[in-house]
Specification:
Length: 302
Amino acid sequence: MLRAAHFPPMALASPTTFVALRKSLVPLLTISSFPLPKLSTFSAFHSFFSTPITPSRPYPSTLTLRQVSPMLGHPHPQLKLSASFNSESGHGDSREILVQHLLLKEDDQNLLVELQQRIAGGEDLGDLAVEYSMCPSKQEGGMLGWVRKGQMVPEFEEAAFSAPLNKVVKCKTNFGWHLLQVLSEREESLLKDIQPEEFYAKIQDPSFIEEAQLIDVREPEEVSQASLPGFQVLPLRQFGSWGPEITTKLDPMKDTYVMCHHGMRSLQVAKWLQTQGFRKVFNLSGGIHAYATKVDPSVPTY
């Protein structure tokens, strides 16, 4: 049974235990004084700013990423964001899989066998996860969401990517025994930077503005100082109002371009859009400032 709500309470995404399998990170958009979204507990990544983003300190050059997964036992080293970002898989498998699981203690062998028998008898893994799983994902029926290679511990990853669709299989990790089920699979989504020069060439074509989805996540006072044609303004401070409706406002199947002042806020939103099922997301590298200074001096800088 799929219990995957798009916006469950944020408490479920607590770094204390959830998710025991995740190795990679996603922006929770935890921005000081901004309305916080209620993000899915099975977002494809989790990350946190080492210092809050505020109007007086809006563009940190370095993000400290803190692992949600307790499997690692220590924080991730600092990740310096380069001028180019590309999340295309380097693991040789371009699939993303939708996974749910149930986690038991290593010494719960009898319960493991009992649950396998109950599943074989027709009971649903999600229902059993709610009742028996140790993982906080139990509140979502064990749902971990869409994952790709490189995001999970090796033992779980090997079992999940080898499992036939809808078949419940077991594996063992340092956290105990897992019963897991792959519910669906799809080609991996794309998230990459686009340089100002390339973007400038694209917007010279009127059909590009009509066909692509262009998002400006800056605040209204910023947009009033400098803007580009065709962009829909979705201010990051107002994320709580437009975030829950993003898949109705925009088409996840269309190419989506995100822009901010210097490319940092837009990168966070671009990553989040990817977790919401957007297939091709592009972040304008350096933001509107780089666009103005590199290719179009008629755009004011601020």
